[in-house]
Structure formats: structure tokens, C-alpha cells
């Protein structure tokens, strides 16, 4: 079972269908969400316009509601939790897509 140059060309340059397009966008969404949460958690670690004394509250804190303008801010610990959640989701999507792609490729060769 030797692979011809035509089969090698098919392996290197895969055809992309609608499912691939959807998965690529889902992975891009996961990566961008992780990046935005990390940037927000890093830049607003000590305080933000909404909550200037954030560093005095510790790892996590409840929402104060109307006392802080009716909205909530997240702690660094909450940002870390969200990043881990999105990271695990994205790794799951990539792993499933990679396995699915290789299973379908091996059935066509």
C-alpha cells in the first residue's frame, strides 16, 4: 500500500466543505473569547471604572447590584474560571474535528 503522488496531494490539500467552515469559525470564536477574557482579566485585575477597589475584595465577590450602578464586575478568579471553561471547550472542538477529519480521510484513501 504505497501512497501515490496524487493521493499525497489530496492529503496535503484537503477540500473544505460547509462542516469544516462551521468548525473553523467555532474554533476561532473559542480562541477569540479566551483572548478577550484574558485581556479583560489582566487589565482590570486591580480595578476598573465600575469597581475601582476590586483588589480589596479578594478572589471572588458577589454582585452588589444598585450599589455599583446596577451592574456587576468579575474578579480575576472568575476570569480564570471562564478562560479554563472556554479553553476546555475549544480543545474538545479541536480534538473532535481532528479525529473526525482523519477518520473521513482514511476511509477515502
TrEMBL record:
Q: State the PANTHER family in the record.
A: OUTER MEMBRANE PROTEIN, OMPA-RELATED (PTHR30128), PHOTOSYSTEM I P700 CHLOROPHYLL A APOPROTEIN A1-RELATED (PTHR30128:SF19)
Q: What keyword terms does UniProt attach to this protein?
A: Membrane, Transmembrane, Transmembrane helix
Question: Which Pfam families does this one have?
Answer: PsaA_PsaB
A single GO BP term for this record reads: photosynthesis
Transmembrane annotation, as ranges: 21-43, 79-100
Protein known as: Photosystem I
Q: Which domain of life is it from?
A: Eukaryota
Query: Per the record, what is one GO cellular component?
Result: chloroplast thylakoid membrane
Amino acid at each position: 500500500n504505497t501512497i501515490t503522488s496524487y493521493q499525497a496531494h489530496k492529503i496535503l490539500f484537503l477540500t473544505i466543505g460547509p462542516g469544516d467552515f462551521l468548525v473553523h469559525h467555532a474554533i476561532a470564536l473559542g480562541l477569540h473569547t479566551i483572548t478577550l477574557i484574558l485581556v479583560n482579566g489582566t487589565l482590570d485585575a486591580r480595578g476598573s471604572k465600575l469597581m475601582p477597589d476590586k483588589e480589596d475584595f479578594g478572589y471572588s465577590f458577589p454582585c452588589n447590584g444598585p450599589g455599583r450602578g446596577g451592574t456587576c464586575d468579575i474578579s480575576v478568579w472568575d476570569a480564570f474560571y471562564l478562560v479554563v471553561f472556554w479553553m476546555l471547550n475549544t480543545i474538545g472542538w479541536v480534538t473532535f474535528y481532528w479525529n473526525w477529519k482523519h477518520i473521513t480521510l482514511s476511509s477515502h484513501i
